[in-house]
Amino acid sequence: MSFLRGLGGHEAARILTGEGVRLRAPAAHDHPDWARLREESRDFLQPWEPMWARDELTRAAYRRRLRRYSREIREDRAYPFFIFRAEDDALVGGATLSNLRRGVAQTCVLGYWMGAPYAGRGYMTAAVRALVGFAFGDLALHRIEAACLPHNAASRRLLEKAGFQVEGFARRYLRIAGDWQDHVLFARLSSDPDPLVDGREEQARLSPVWRGQAMRPDGQPADRSAGRPGGQKEIL
Question: Is 60 within a domain?
Answer without folding.
Answer: yes
